[in-house]
């Protein structure tokens, strides 16, 4: 007997907790904006760490007492706080804290969800996100059989399946999904060869689904570069300052020369260096970008910038190779810790005509996947 699924009006979105992660927030906002633009009502399911009332009270106190950073509570709060207005504006419907499986199940009923979408980012990487919530991210908490389960651009983080103890359970959970898509080519192989979903599709990170006009509206008008006669800027956004990355960055800056004002971004101590609109603006207003960030690379492409990306194997290199490969930009990826410096790329501007054509094709494919999964 074939199950008739209910028409989709209300969608629950499950992703990693936002906290202070630029890319994690950005992709969640992008997917929410796309789905809202398609006419759906989207509610973010906020799966958070389990805690007693006393622990929650103590955490609230520690967040606000200056001059200390016990267990990094205040530091995490200070880094996340600048992003709250952005999240409130673009993800207005949120479930509130859901601290266990039962709360997740109740949220599906309370918000009358017709579908739950898990993704994007590294939601299928056990080391990320809330401890002991791995199977939640394969939607084990969704009870009604007629609620659609959809994975959009989910990422395993690693290019192989490293959770053999979870294989049987995850395979059973994925069998209940109406549609599965992943962000990396290795994810397609994992789904097909290990987890019983040979129909898994490769799609774009949701940041690339929405129009560049949306991101321009987020950051506001361009600002003139300051401090150099040439009026040019180079944005550097390096998450892991390895010896190779620092050497490559410094070599690129030296080659670009004094006509370029340097805009550097990152996490500084206990405070976020920039709020999200300012961070996005650093890429929009740059003339050249050097970054080891996947979403820094994504925004370089969105705003058609000349850039060099540093492969960051610890954080997941396959997302870089997959995206840049499908867009014909594989040569913009270097491996600094293997001695590559990328200096030559400062003299090789990108022809964005073919890139945008390929991106348009991939965007159409990704949109078709979501529309088919939800309709």
Question: How are the SSEs ordered, and which strands pair?
Answer:
Layout: E1 10-14, H1 22-37, E2 41-47, H2 53-64, H3 73-80, H4 84-90, E3 94-98, H5 101-110, E4 115-118, E5 148-154, H6 167-174, E6 179-182, H7 185-193, E7 201-202, H8 212-219, E8 232-237, H9 243-256, E9 260-265, E10 267-268, E11 271-272, H10 276-284, E12 288-291, H11 294-302, E13 306-310, H12 318-326, E14 333-334, H13 352-374
Parallel strand pairs: 1-2, 1-4, 2-3, 4-5, 5-6, 6-7, 8-9, 8-12, 12-13, 13-14
Antiparallel strand pairs: 10-11
Helix pairs in contact: 2-3, 8-10
Sum up the structure in keywords:
single chain, 375 residues, alpha/beta, Rossmann fold, 2 domains, 7-stranded parallel β-sheet, 38% helix, 16% strand
What does this structure look like?
The chain is of the alpha/beta class and 375 residues long. It has 2 domains: 10-210, Rossmann fold (3-Layer(aba) Sandwich), CATH 3.40.50; 213-358, 3-Layer(aba) Sandwich (Rossmann fold). Helix content is 38%, strand content 16%. It has a 7-stranded parallel sheet. A 5-stranded parallel sheet has the order 9-8-12-13-14, sandwiched between helices. Strand 5, helix 6 (167-174) and strand 6 (179-182) form a beta-alpha-beta unit. Helix 8 (212-219) crosses helix 10 (276-284). It is globular. The mean pLDDT is 92.
């Amino acid at each position: 007997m074939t199950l008739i699924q209910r028409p989709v009006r209300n969608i629950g979105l499950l992703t990693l907790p936002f906290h202070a992660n630029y890319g994690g927030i950005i992709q969640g906002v992008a997917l929410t904006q796309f789905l809202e633009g398609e006419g759906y009502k989207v509610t973010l399911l906020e799966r958070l760490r389990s805690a007693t009332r006393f622990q929650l009270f103590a955490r609230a106190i520690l967040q606000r007492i200056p001059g200390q950073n016990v267990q990094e509570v205040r530091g995490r709060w200070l880094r996340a706080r600048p992003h709250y207005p952005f999240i409130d504006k673009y993800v207005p419907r949120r479930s509130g804290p859901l601290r266990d499986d039962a709360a997740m199940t109740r949220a599906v009923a309370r918000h009358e969800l017709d579908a739950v979408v898990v993704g994007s980012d590294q939601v299928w990487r056990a080391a990320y996100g809330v401890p002991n919530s791995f199977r939640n991210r394969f939607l084990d908490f969704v009870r009604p059989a007629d609620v659609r389960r959809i994975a959009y651009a989910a990422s395993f983080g690693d290019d192989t399946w490293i959770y053999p103890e979870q294989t049987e359970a995850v395979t059973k959970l994925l069998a209940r999904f109406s549609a599965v898509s992943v962000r990396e080519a290795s994810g397609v192989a994992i789904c097909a060869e290990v987890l019983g979903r040979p129909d898994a599709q490769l799609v774009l990170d949701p940041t690339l689904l929405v129009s560049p006009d949306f991101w321009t509206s987020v950051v506001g008008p361009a600002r003139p570069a300051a401090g150099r006669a040439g009026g040019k800027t180079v944005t550097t956004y390096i998450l892991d300052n390895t010896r190779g990355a620092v050497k490559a960055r410094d070599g690129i800056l030296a080659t670009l020369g004094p006509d370029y004002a340097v805009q550097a971004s990152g996490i500084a101590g206990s405070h976020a260096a920039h709020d999200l609109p300012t961070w996005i603006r650093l890429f929009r207003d740059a003339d050249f970008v050097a970054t080891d960030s996947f979403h820094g690379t994504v925004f370089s492409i969105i705003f058609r910038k000349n850039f060099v990306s540093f492969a960051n194997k610890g954080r997941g290199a396959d997302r870089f190779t997959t995206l840049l490969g499908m867009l014909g930009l594989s040569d913009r990826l270097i491996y600094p810790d293997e001695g590559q410096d990328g200096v030559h790329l400062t003299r090789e501007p990108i022809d964005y005509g073919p890139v945008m054509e390929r991106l348009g094709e991939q965007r159409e494919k990704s949109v078709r996947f979501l529309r088919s999964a939800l309709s």
